Model the fold of this input.
Amino acid sequence: GNSVTQMEGPVTLSEEAFLTINCTYTATGYPSLFWYVQYPGEGLQLLLKATKADDKGSNKGFEATYRKETTSFHLEKGSVQVSDSAVYFCALSDSGYSTLTFGKGTMLLVSP
Amino acid sequence: NAGVTQTPKFRVLKTGQSMTLLCAQDMNHEYMYWYRQDPGMGLRLIHYSVGEGTTAKGEVPDGYNVSRLKKQNFLLGLESAAPSQTSVYFCASSTPDREGSGYTFGSGTRLTVV
Done:
C-alpha cells in the first residue's frame, strides 16, 4: 500500500535559519505529492503540490521538488520566520478518487 | 467565507452515547472525506464519498458510519462512542476536475469520550 514517511520533530530553528523537512514515499504508479500546513487550533491548508516527476512546487518561500528516482519530496525554505511555526504534513494521492495518504507530520518551532 | 464547515467544534460524550458530526461544503465539490487526527499518527482516513448517495470505507472505518444524502453534506456518526474514539476529526472536500487540486479542510471537531 501507499505510505509517507516524514522526519520526526520537533524541528527547532532560529529565525532566518534554513529549513529542510524530509519526506519519502512509497506508492504504485505516479502519485501527486503535497505539503500541507496546520497552524495551532486550525485545519490543514494546502501549502504546495507537484503532480509529476521533476516538478517543483512553491508557495510563500517554501519549495519542494518531486524526485522520482529517490521517491522524495523534501520541503525547504531559505529563511524561516516565527510565523512559520506549525505542523507540516507530506501527503500523496495516486488513486482515481484522489484519497490522500498523509505522513505523521513534523512540528516546526521557530524562535526569535 | 466559502469553504468547509464542521459542527460542532467541541463535544464531550460518555461511553456508549451516540452523536453525529456534520460537514457542509459550499464549493460544489464532488468528493468528501472524514479523517481523524491523533498524536503521533498523522491523519487517517475513516470514510469517504465520491458523490451524492455513495460512501466507501477508508483505513479506520470501524465504529463509524457515514451518509451523503445531499452533495454538500457529509455526516459522520458514532453509534456507541468509545474512549478510543477520542480524537480530532477533520472533514475535507475536493474536486476531481483537476489533477492534484488538493483538499479543502474544515477547522475540525475535537471529541472527547469519557
User: Anything to note?
Assistant: Chain A has a mean pLDDT of 92. The radius of gyration of chain A is 13 Å. Chain A touches chain B through 22 residues (CB under 8 Å). Residues 20 and 76 of chain A are 5 Å apart (CA to CA).
